[in-house]
């Protein structure tokens, strides 16, 4: 996969994660917190950037730890180099079915991290990066599938455990940053915009799930069944 395509995929996966139902709820909470900066454009922008930086730090940290653990074991490294392409096809199909909710994923959200995030909301503007960090670790089924099942294998395959998770983190924070600015200029129509975002998520998730399954079928036919030259 080309570098630009990998970077674009990581960013899109982050955006899709941010508007999925469960992460969307935490992002709405973050937007509500950022609403305290309404009327102060610089304050809203700074808080949104700090929140996004916190999310980036969480995903980059996870990427580094998991990549280091996987690649430090010669057997795992050799296995990924030899069979990584063959595994990617079925994995993409599986993730696509998770994203489309064809297969339920019995995974609870990070309750402890969510509870901690609630406690730091009263810390002022500097709570933004910690809030982003904690919300990022509050994985839901779809966000876990997208990060661990799609982003992380992509980062390992591209040998990019920092850049791609960072772009993923930026993607997860972009809606919050956008809505923080909307709140700064006027919050009257914020609820309507959030509802539009929720409707967009449904279609974006369906399209992404179908693309994942289609790409998985293609890779399986090419590298497992050798039916495509």
List the helices and strands and how they pair.
Elements: H1 3-18, H2 21-34, H3 41-71, H4 74-99, H5 111-120, H6 127-136, H7 141-157, H8 163-185, H9 190-224
- The structural class is mainly alpha
Q: Share of helix among residues? A: over 70%
Strand content: under 5%
Helix-strand pattern, N to C? HHHHHHHHH
- Give the overall pLDDT as a whole number: 75
Number of strands: 0
Cα-atom radius of gyration: 18 Å
Q: Please give the oligomerization state of what you see.
A: single chain
Total helical elements: 9
Biggest sheet details: none
- Give start-end ranges of low-pLDDT stretches: none
Domain count: the total is 1
Structure description:
There is one protein chain. With about 230 residues, the protein is mainly alpha-helical. It has one domain (about 5-225). It has nine helices and no strands. It has helices at about 5-20, 20-35, 40-70, 75-100, 110-120, 125-135, 140-155, 165-185, 190-225. α1 runs antiparallel to α7 (about 140-155), α1 (about 5-20) crosses α8 and α3 crosses α6 (about 125-135). The longest helix is centred in the C-terminal third of the chain and has 35 residues, at about 190-225. It is globular, with a radius of gyration of 18 Å.
